[in-house]
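Can you give me the bound-state structure? Components:
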Amino acid sequence: MDAGGDGAVFLETRGLVREFHVGPSVVRALDGLDLAVTRGEFLAVLGVSGSGKSTLLHLLGGLDTPTSGDVVVEGRDLASLSPRERALYRRTAVGFVFQSYYLVPSLTAEENLAVALLFQGTYGLAGRRLAGEALRRVGVEHRRRHRPSQLSGGEQQRVAIARAIVHQPPLLLADEPTGNLDRATAEEVMLLLAGIHRDLGTTVVMVTHDRETAERVADRIVHLRDGRLVDGKGPTP
Amino acid sequence: MRLWRLVILALGGLRRTPLRVALTVLGVMIGSGALVSMVAFALGVQRMAEAPFEMLGLLNNIEVLPGKDDAGEARALDDAAIDELAALPGVAAAYPDIRAAGVKLLNGDTATRAMAVGVATHVPMFGEIDELLLAGHFFESGEKPEALLSVALLRDLGFESPQEAVGSVLRLEADGLSPTDAKTFAYEHKDFTITVIGVYGMPRMVPGFHHRGVLVPMGLMKEIPGIQASLAMASLRAGKSAMGAGYEKAIVRVEHFADLARLEEQIRTMGFETQTLLERLDDMRSFFVFMDAALAAVGAVALVVAALGVVNTLLISVLERYQEIGIYKALGASDGDLVTLFLAEAGLVGLLGGLGGLALGRAVAWALGTAVNVYARSQGVTRTFDIFAFPLWLLAATVVFSVVVSVVAGVYPARRAARLDPIRALRRH
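Here's the bound-state model for the whole set.
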């Protein structure tokens, strides 16, 4: 396993707490999490479901705001950003890959990428070129005019990955990217993510419950249990 | 440019539920169709009412009356004064407006009373009178003792049709007091023999044309006794000569409507009183403004009801597309982008509905117009009515209004979409 990154802290959480109100009770999904990710690192976060993995990714991606604590990305505290600035952060700095792909069903593969680019202000010929490149990189260029319903699960996840990297973000957040896929396809998708990490130098944070796969692709693995880190592996910044 | 792409994306959103969108568009169509056809009706009726004014050029006329006597600067409206008015720059023609009420017209033994009106045959005022002529022709010269009869007089004179009246020879009897010298009047009775050369029909609401009129050339009119009697008496009472008191009224026709106000002012400074038809037309116009507004309000209500349909459709669309909205947010769409996206959908519904409404409005206008004319014809009316007017501004305003109303209707659903929590939205199926 290559040790990724240049050692500089890219992303950091300090005392991160996220509580949810479920009826009268309060559920603490994250309980004072301190985590640092170096630039260009591939970090896998392992944990059973309900351990707070997805919540962590949502907070890192600026989709959610913490109850307390900070998320600092390249020196910027996400909590200090206005909703507009957070949208800008999501559109420029982050690429999301979800377990359920979350492709827009009415749009073709190419259009799904075009929409992502559209929100960033890239369209037309430049947009088509970027979309074509991204689809080629994930190996589904020949399926670009197909809608999600006409694609296999593996193909859909490849399109979703292409969409996540089409604008070449420095940070890729993957939430159980292989959770809905069979063993062989999951293997391909995982290698794809590893390739992107290696070739583009993208910082990757992936949450999964699949230890075996994580161990093969990640630079470092952390375990999350009840909203806290329980141990770590690999270089700790 | 980015906005345009969002609009294209919005179009894709509409494509997803074609039936629901089509029904919503239909609602907007009916609303804007009602709006456009009602306003077009009001405008059409107004046009029909104003057409005679414009056709006869009446709006280019200034009625000139003798000046008031109190300042001692009174100006008589005599032939010399009329020549002076005619010589003003920008004046096309000036002529006395002479009429005599209660002249007797006889067709053999059949007699009736009419209003004799002098016509300045040299003035191109009646250039379009052909449209009003039911039979015969206009004066060719002012020399012959000829007359045009109002259609209202025909039956009383024993004529069955306009055609029958043309060519017939009538007697015109008139009597009155005429000044014979500075202080003396004489009772006069005169008989004229006139040939009917045409019959005209005139909308009653056009001022200056008596319903029971007999139009005769100015030369003949000036010979009718009594036409200057009342002014001559007034002059006499004021201690002046009964002779040369002039006419009660003259018409000054201006070449260009734009000069009307300037010339009216100039004529007033010459010591005359003036009035124009503009004032009366203004009254009529203000009535039509009210009518336009009332009908537009009814149409607008229909459009507002349709707007509720737009709200409903978009709210359902937001509910159905929770996940899609979440995806867009995860991809970095700002709240503003999502508002734009849904407002663009609303605007597209408004645009399609507005354009469809124009077609619908025109179809309704065509159907009603045809029905009115078929009915009119069955009642023996030969004229064709064009009761709807669709000026370009109305077409444009209808589409714009339809889009604006729909976009406003889209504001609430769009804001709801923009305010969605992306994580919840993503989890929802």
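A couple of observations. Chain A touches chain B through 30 residues (CB under 8 Å). Chain A is about 35% helix and 30% strand.
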